[in-house]
Structures are given as C-alpha cells and as structure tokens.
Write a structure and sequence with these properties.
alpha+beta; elongated; four-stranded antiparallel beta sheet; 2 domains; Rieske Iron-sulfur Protein; six-stranded antiparallel beta sheet
C-alpha cells in the first residue's frame, strides 16, 4: 500500500495537477478584468494576507465546538446541546465552502513540490466536508449516534489536512512573504552606474547579495526588492505595464512607486527603496515613509 510520501513524490499525478491548474487559470482568464478582480479578492490582496488562511479558522473552530457539544449532549441529553452541535456543523460547512474557493484560487499559482501537497491537502478537506455533511443529514434523520461517528471521522480527516496545510506554510513557504529577511541599506549606497540603466528596461542590481530592481522612467528611477514576495520570481525579467511591474512567474503586479500589490496572487507588497543619483552612480536606501523613490540629484 503506497504511503503518503509515495503519493507526494509520484510523477503519475503531474498531468492531473497541471490540467487542473490550467482549468482554474482559464476560468478566471475567461472573465477578463472581472475575473482578475475576483481573483484579487479571493487571494486577499486587499487584506495584505492570504484570505484562505483567515477563512480556514471558521470550519476548524466550528467543528471543534460541534464535537464539544456532542460530548455534552451525550452526557446530559439536553436538546440545547444537540441543537448547538448541529448548528456548529452547519456554520463549519459554510466556512469550508469559502475556504475551498480561496484555497483553490491560491493553489493555481503554487509550483512543485508544494503543488502536490496542496492537492492532497484539498482532497482531504473535501473528504472532511463530505463526512460532516453526511453527519448533518443523519442528525436531521434522528440518527444522532451515526451522525456523531461521521463527525468524528470528518474531524480526523480535517486534522490530517490541517497538518499538511502547516507543512505548506512552514516547509514550502506558501503564502509567506518571500522578501522577509532581506536586508536593505539604511543609508544611501551605490548599486549601479547611472549610464548602465536603460530607459524602461527592468534591471537587476545587487547590494550585499540582496537583489534590487531598478527601473528608469524619464527623470525618475524606481527601486524595489527584485525577489517577488509571492514565490520569489525575478522581477527584473518581468514586463512593465505603465507604472507597474508584472512578475514573469505568476503575474503578480506591483506599483513601482510604492511596491503596492495591484494584482495577485501576491498579497504582500514589495519593499520599496528611495533612490538618488550622485557622482554618476545610482544610490538606494530604505525609505522612511511611502514617499519613496524621489530622486535627489547632487
């Protein structure tokens, strides 16, 4: 019998994963600007954190409470506890629907090997939802003992899925700001001769091993962290869209002047640096406020 690790490492599921990701991408793309706006909302670009992570607390909390009320119901046989358990399961199912929609929206932009783990995580949660839904149906038919059993099985499946979700975050850094830990200069330092920066050509510079994106547009030079906050994509290989840069890996779009996320799947803004030109060199430093990238010519 294959182990969980065998399933995670098996190449046989690659075509299924790729096909599913392409299908979800196509579904959002077919809706045009409205699809992108919906994707931004479900990713959590407006929140500054993955919306999926927030919504997962609803079913976990509700179903935990349901099991507690089930226990109280078995001990006291008070109708109030039974009603509270049933209501908690219903709330959990509603929350699980939101978590599922946001989860698959995030998953479409996850790369291997985390992609496989995310698929298994999602399938386990589908199983948990099915078990809790069955539990609720049985309860409505006055088969409470069977309903409690299915709820316990659903909770076990949810627990395993939650463990995999933790691995996605802590081991594969899914949903984590990939620019965290990067150190940028407190005072102005030279990173590139001004003559080497072409007009409207995203260019990679470096300071102490940390990559920095430079973009010249007219009289202004913009500087951002070059590593995309979503999945570490190289923004210097991206394309300019007006006064924004689009990541070449998953299409996240950031404002050049503030680093603000304009389009997901990224939810964390890019660190934005202040720039100036001195003695023919482009110098950068961490800004003290949002009024970044104001060039100072001396």
């Amino acid at each position: 019998m294959p182990t969980t690790q065998d399933i995670i490492e098996s190449p046989k599921l690659n075509p299924l994963e790729e096909a599913l990701q392409k299908y979800v991408h196509a579904a959002y793309a077919s809706a045009g600007e409205g699809g992108q706006a919906l994707k931004n909302f479900l990713n959590g670009t407006w929140l500054g954190e993955p919306l999926h992570v927030v919504l997962t607390d609803v079913p976990i909390g509700a179903w935990t409470v349901a099991l507690v009320f089930d226990g109280l119901d078995m001990m006291s046989r008070k109708r109030e506890f039974a009603s509270a358990a049933d209501a908690s399961i219903g709330i959990g199912l509603i929350g699980a629907a939101g978590a599922a929609v946001t989860g698959i929206t995030d998953w479409q932009d996850v790369d291997p090997p985390a992609r496989r783990l995310g698929l298994i995580h999602g399938l386990l949660n589908v199983g948990a939802v099915s078990l809790f839904a069955t539990s609720l149906v049985l309860r409505k038919k006055n088969a409470r003992s069977s309903g409690r059993l299915f709820a316990a099985l659903g909770y076990a499946a949810m627990t395993v899925a939650a463990n995999l979700g933790g691995k996605l975050v802590y081991e594969h850094r899914v949903g984590v700001d990939r620019t965290k830990g990067q150190t940028f200069p407190e005072d102005f330092v030279a990173v590139m001769p001004e003559s080497n920066l072409a007009e409207e050509k995203p260019t990679r510079a470096e300071h102490n091993g940390v990559p920095i994106l430079l973009v010249r547009r007219g009289e202004r030079i913009y500087a951002l962290a070059e590593t995309c906050s979503h999945f570490s994509g190289p923004l210097a290989e991206g394309k300019l869209e007006g006064y924004s840069i689009v990541c070449p890996w998953h299409g996240s779009r950031f404002a050049l002047d503030t680093g603000e996320v304009l389009d997901g799947p990224a939810v964390h803004p890019q660190p934005c640096l202040q720039t100036r030109i001195q003695n023919g060199q482009i110098e950068v430093r961490k800004p003290n406020c949002k009024a970044a990238n104001q060039n100072t010519d001396n």
